[in-house]
Design brief:
Elements (H helix, E strand, L loop, with lengths): L1 H11 L10 E14 L4 E3 L20 E9 L4 E10 L9 E10 L4 E9 L22 H4 L6 E13 L4 E16 L4 E17 L2 E16 L9 E6 L5 E4 L11 H4 L3 H8 L4 E13 L3 E11 L6 E11 L4 E13 L2 E3 L4 H13 L4 E8 L4 E14 L2 E14 L10 E3 L5 H4 L3 E11 L1
Keywords: Signal
Protein name: Porin
Organism: Pseudoalteromonas aliena SW19
Length: about 450
């Protein structure tokens, strides 16, 4: 696939001097400063970053620069290449090829594309990196972290038309492909197989309505491309705080051989292991914008059926344009739909473990289980955008993140790295994220 992109780049970069009318360059950039109110809780713009911003200002969370070249090959054929530079899982700014596709205009209504382009899973997917195009400083973490899918390598078809006298316009986009470039720092990455989706958008007067669905499979692979076997944590107490790590592939269940102690460990492991497990996403969005008042609402449901649980998330945002100033407020919510997978533990072993659980001051479960990811949180956002100069905007935003639940995990939830040994939801404290950003397009 990378050789196709190289060819596309060569097509798009002919003699610019000889084809200046057909070749256009544009770009965007954001310089951002971020901090939290906690020295041991770091905010990260996406879950591939190795470190984040704590109670000291950092300038590398949302900072990004992108350059896009578009070349008109003929009246029907064109190509686009976009290079993007932002801090990545390697903790550097090595540019990446974000877009690289050929577009064919079949007629005035239908456009076909092939190559690498944005995966349109959410309302703001197309502009997720062009912060100037959005009112707030970044896409809503609670919702957009439900599917950290940036691009798709594949094909799509986009059909646009009007209804009646043209008061109502609509667009339908169908796409198919794959995505396998989401790395976790130095360890593994997520591969999305057989992605296919459909998105429909309708516009009427000041209203926009959008619905989308994506069907795919996902796997966790090592840096060498092998499936990551991992292990399971068998939870044994009713508060889900006590448990044992078991590895059915190596027949190691911490308290004995898995085949003897937990006969169905392999069956449960085959369900929760992220090896070509389903990954389906449904999203709905409504936008109202009359030029002065505006508001938008977006909802998403994720079906993962693996160690990554199903989940729902939503947000609402309203604002008002007062000259060059735009104040806005928003609320977002995320919740994992956690499942328990029962493990058949040998009666003698269970009785022994039960006594240990009681001795530690907890109550044992009637049946030991494996749980997939469990979290619940909400965020209140307030901000102000100032369009102080042509194609430039200064934004100030404060997010109050509240971790409501995160059973048995010492992690912080979407958008955070928790450096403590205490579950954030147990603290009952809010995390305040303050951001100042300068957005530019050129």
């Amino acid at each position: 696939m990378k050789y196709i992109y190289i060819c596309l780049a060569l097509i798009l970069l002919p003699s610019v001097a000889q084809a200046s009318d057909d070749f256009k360059i544009s770009g965007f950039a954001t310089l951002s400063a971020v901090k939290t109110n906690k020295e041991d809780v770091q905010f990260i713009q996406n879950n591939t970053l190795p470190t984040g911003a704590d109670d000291h200002w950092r300038f590398d969370n949302d900072t990004v620069i992108g350059v896009q070249g578009q070349y008109k090959i003929s009246d029907k054929l064109s190509g686009v290449v976009q290079l993007l530079s932002r801090r990545n899982y390697k903790n550097n700014y090595q540019p990446s090829l974000d877009w690289a596709y050929i577009s064919y205009k079949y007629n005035s209504n239908l456009r076909l594309r092939a190559g690498r382009f944005v995966s349109p899973v959410f309302l703001g997917s197309d502009t997720r990196n062009v912060n100037y195009s959005n009112v707030w400083v970044r896409p809503v973490i609670d919702l957009y972290s439900q599917a950290t899918i940036n691009n798709i390598d594949g094909v799509d078809a986009i059909y646009s038309n009007f209804i009646g006298d043209g008061d109502i316009s609509y667009q339908i986009q169908a796409y198919a492909g794959k995505f396998d470039k989401l790395y976790f720092p130095g360890k593994s990455y997520i591969k999305f197989h057989h992605m296919a989706g459909l998105v429909g958008t309708v516009q009427y007067d000041s209203w926009t309505f959008r619905a989308g669905y994506m069907n795919a499979q996902h796997s966790t692979l090592s840096a060498e491309g092998d499936y990551v076997p991992g292990n399971m944590r068998m939870l044994v107490s009713t508060d889900y705080q006590l448990g044992l790590n078991i590895d059915p592939q190596n027949d190691n269940c911490a308290v004995g051989a898995c085949s003897e102690v937990v006969p169905n460990a392999g069956d449960v492991f085959s369900i929760i292991q992220r090896k070509r497990r389903p990954f389906n996403l449904t999203s709905l969005a409504v936008v109202y914008d009359n030029g002065s008042y505006f508001g938008q609402f977006e909802w998403a449901h994720r079906e993962a059926r693996s160690a990554l649980s199903n989940g729902i998330a939503a947000y609402g945002m309203v604002g008002y344009r007062l000259g060059s100033f735009t104040p806005y407020v928003g609320y977002s919510y995320a919740k994992s739909l956690t499942e328990n997978f029962a493990l058949d533990v040998d009666a003698d072993v269970k009785a022994s473990l039960d006594s240990q659980v009681v001795g530690l001051g907890s109550e044992p479960l009637d049946q030991y289980v494996v749980r997939n990811s469990n979290s619940r949180s909400n965020t209140i956002t307030t901000g102000l955008r100032w369009d102080f100069y042509k194609k430039m905007a200064l934004k100030v935003q404060v997010d109050r993140f509240r971790p409501l639940n995160n059973d048995g995990l010492a992690t912080g939830g979407s958008g955070f790295r928790n450096l403590t040994n205490e579950t954030l939801s147990a603290t009952g404290q809010n995390i305040i994220v303050s951001t100042v950003s300068l957005d530019i397009i050129f």
